[in-house]
Specification:
203 residues; alpha/beta; Nucleotidyltransferase, domain 5; five-stranded mixed beta sheet; 7 helices; DNA-binding; DNA-binding (chains A, B); DNA damage (chains A, B); DNA recombination (chains A, B)
Chain lengths: 203, 203
DNA sequence: CCCATTATAATGAGGT
DNA sequence: ACCTCATTTGCTTCAC
DNA sequence: GTGAAGCAACGGTTCA
DNA sequence: TGAACCGTATAATGGG
């Protein structure tokens, strides 16, 4: 499941990635909250939305865009608050969480770290065999994150994500450690995977 | 209940404010999470802690420090994520949430916007008749936020907080609006209350 | 293959 | 409902 | 009383 | 276990 966190609009996309680099869209949803409501209520609404989807689709992993702040603290904070409840909801269900920066996402789907939104939308549509471009903008991003993670984590490649079992411990720890020990003699895909996991683990 | 949000250490303080400007400490707790754990798990732990306390003490209001970011985005974001789950937990229980800036808090309890930590700790201890200074530093801050809100919201004064009932709508909206309509002819306490609420409502 | 540089967002309000 | 555009912290304190 | 300026924190690691 | 100190973003792109 990919998530594009935001206070006013939070995008969720459930995708089934295939070994052959394509994917199937199982669900898309953009939860909107109006500024008329109390902030706490808005955050709660997002949490509820996330919970519902996680329960309904029980994804193997939750991929979410890392929050970035450049000269707009308030919005970044609000976004972070929203992302907080989402990742907590995942953790409560033993679902591993992976973070990806916007650049990673764009680069993953378009092979160009600085591709405009349209390019991303088009690629997403192609990869998922969508009839048209994803309707709400935030849906596109949610899709993209999901795809990005699928790619980088190696879903459909030689490696698969192992679902987290314990509530107490990060799921990927074991795999990570194993990979880290043999830091040499890996294919490009393996390196990419390791790097991605290592990075994701830092947060 | 006052909250000092943080990822590694999150302080919670339950206080019963008295009409005579003093208060009684009902509970203090600092939830700590180690960086060994997965971030999602850490956030979840904080959420759980908040939930437990909210259920146990059913406070009239949750007062929390507003997150501030200047030259440290990552930290601010983590803090915000933590605060997110806390306020969501409150919202889920229909408990109104109020935000206060660090300056407000310090100024409220020490009459000096830029008082050092010790001064705050001492004042808190005095106000609450504590045997000694609050043990974990974060506890002090949690206490202070609670006291600050009690003061500024007028708990123990002529006005009391009304608990939120609906999940869907901000609790204070009605009160706020009523107060805003008659913006004149109020006592200092009334003005303070109105201002505090108005400010709190913005976020 | 390694190093330096640089680009990066989201909200709220208002109009269509 | 979608899209476009502009904005980008807030409070205490001190000086006047 | 009004207006202008300055300042605010936390996480990770290491040591006692 | 608790206290003090230091740093404060990241990753893709392009060039050496």
């Amino acid at each position: 499941m990919g998530v594009d966190p935001g206070l006013t609009r939070c995008g969720f996309a459930v995708v089934q990635m295939q070994p052959n680099r394509s994917g199937e869209s199982l669900h898309v949803e953009v939860k909107g909250t109006s500024s008329d409501e109390d902030l706490a209520v808005r955050i709660l609404a997002i949490q509820r939305a996330a919970e519902q989807l996680l329960d309904e689709f029980a994804p193997d992993v939750l991929a979410i865009e890392r929050v970035f702040s450049s000269a707009n603290a308030p919005t970044a904070i609000a976004t972070a608050q929203a992302s907080g409840v989402v990742i907590a909801a995942a953790a409560a269900r033993g679902i591993p969480v992976a973070w990806h920066t916007p650049s990673e996402v764009k680069a993953a789907v378009t092979d160009d770290g600085r591709a405009d939104k349209d390019a991303v939308a088009r690629m997403v549509a192609r990869i998922l065999n969508l009839p048209g471009l994803p309707k709400p903008v935030d849906a596109t991003d949610a899709y993209a994150v999901a795809i990005c993670h699928g790619w980088r984590s190696g879903v459909g490649a030689k490696f698969n994500m192992t679902a987290a079992t314990a509530t107490h411990q990060g799921a990927r720890t074991a795999l990570q450690k194993a990979a880290a020990q043999r830091s040499t003699g890996m294919t490009a895909a393996q390196r990419a995977w390791q790097d991605a996991e290592r990075r994701a683990a830092r947060r």
